[in-house]
Amino acid sequence: MFAVADLEGSKVSFKCTPDEFQELILIDGIAPAQYVARYHWITLHKANALRTSEVQRLIRDSYQMVFDKLPKKVKQKL
């Protein structure tokens, strides 16, 4: 799992690097994700907290971080 969104689409959570985590949680509308903040997950509570292109980049990076840690056999299946 690399990202999670609520059914209304008003919030989205995803993994980020430790450095980005520290920077992003200082922005209004972004908070540490409940239960998984210790793994550097954040939650966007406001759609306009970041530019769309920045959110897209962060979600792509989240996917890549999770993908990189998968076992080799699982990566080959994907």
Summed up:
This protein is 38% helix and 18% strand. The protein is an alpha+beta fold. It has one domain: Aspartate Aminotransferase, domain 1, CATH 3.90.1150.30.
Runs in which pLDDT lies below 50 for 5 or more consecutive residues are none
β-strand number: 4
Strand content: 15-25%
Instruction: Write the CATH architecture name.
Output: Alpha-Beta Complex
Largest sheet report: 4 strands, antiparallel
Q: What is the SS-derived class?
A: alpha+beta
- Tell me the name of the CATH class: Alpha Beta
Order of strands across the biggest sheet?
1-2-4-3
Helix content: 25-40%
Number of helices: 3
Run of helices and strands: EEHEEHH
Task: List the keywords.
78 residues, four-stranded antiparallel β-sheet, 3 helices, alpha+beta
Architecture overview:
By secondary structure, the protein is an alpha+beta fold. It has a single domain (3-77), classed as Aspartate Aminotransferase, domain 1 (Alpha-Beta Complex), CATH 3.90.1150.30. It contains 3 helices and 4 strands; from the N terminus they run ββαββαα. The protein has helices spanning 18-24, 52-68, 72-77, and strands spanning 3-5, 12-15, 30-32, 41-44. A 4-stranded antiparallel β-sheet has the order 1-2-4-3. The radius of gyration is 13 Å and the shape is globular. The relative contact order is 0.20. The mean pLDDT is 94.
